[in-house]
Predict the structure.
Amino acid sequence: MAREYDVKDLSLAKEGKVRIEWAERFMPVLAQIRRRFEKEKPLAGVRLGCCMHVTTETANLMRALKAGGGEPALCASNPLSTQDPIAASMVQDYGVKVFAIRGEDNETYYRHIHDVLDRKPNITMDDGCDLANTIHRDRTELIPGVWASMEETTTGIIRLRAMEKDGALKIPVFAVNDAESKHFFDNRYGTGQSTCDGIIRATNVLFAGRRVVAAGYGWCGRGFAMRAKGLGANVIVTEINPVKAIEAAMDGFTVMPMAEAAKIGDVFCTLTGNKNVIRPEHFEVMKDGAIICNSGHFNVELDLPGLESLAEKVSEDERPLVKRYDLRNGKTIFVLADGRLVNLACAEGHPPSVMDMSFSVQALTTEHAIKNKGSYPVAVNPVPADIDMNISTLKLASMGIEIDELTPEQVKYLSSYDEGT
Ligand code: ADE
């Protein structure tokens, strides 16, 4: 018999509900979708398996899915990002089946993934591909019943595209991350603000005047670099892609290899989606007191076993979620949140105003996938462009911003090729 929920403590629900309702104030587009879903019930009877950060924003997405008649079950996409009061309120106040406890060990994390899969989802919603991966690896009996998978992150899309290329993908996927109304805003402004927020909450460090190193200049890296600069930091960017490196340089940042940045940085944050970006040869040359953290999806960007091998002593909790490594070379390095997503482990993740757009893409693409069940190929499919336009139009209206419309003459001009100089 499948379990109904596994959360830390249901008595936390009251606090959770207040916080969920606070976030709702900043998620007007998703609230509008929820009200329409309530009337039209486009998700009636559909079982939804979701593996996402258990936050106030995700709770509002779950409410929208439920309002549409869906039956969501949710587990965490990172063991440190769960907000226990939110998990409790989702179970108690909103009837969502939640399997997530902050700080859960690896075994519990995967048991919770299986708890969600035990409900035999028709649609899966992933933030990092753990559900889709587990289905393809260990729960292949579920594949015929899964109509489509939604993927929220760059890292997840990279994994899914690799599966598609190898012929290993067995389910149609929608690349929610790649929708413009998602990654232009969430990855850039969401990660930019929440990463600074996480570093500051964990350490209380002043950015102004410090050398902050951003590893990676994709959408997340640029958001972080931009916001760190805004706080007065001297920002150094490291890259492996020449085009992105030029962009960083022309955006006014200092660009250099990590081997050089390691010698002069005060605060380091990785946002690359790759592994072992900061390694022992870098730790060896860092300044005493350097702070290092990661804001990429998985905790593999910092080579922490490598750091440990250089340390004569590792001690916990200098401050919560700060670990101190005393190296044999006499210097100390501080690691935040064991190299897990610093913005979600040390702060609350992206603010609701930006998740409003990301989760509206999730809700509308889910509705679209259900309406068009069976008609999409087993591939990583783009989110339909009209969903992007619809969400951006609604978001603009909610922000009280009006824009121009093309005149008929301009429409004609754009579709013709006979007018020139
Ligand atoms: N990813 C980044 N920030 C998030 C948030 N606040 N909620 C859910 N997923 C997130």
Notes: The mean pLDDT is 97. Residues 52-53, 55, 57-58, 190, 344, 349-350, 355 surround adenine (CB under 6 Å). Residues 29 and 394 are 6 Å apart (CA to CA).
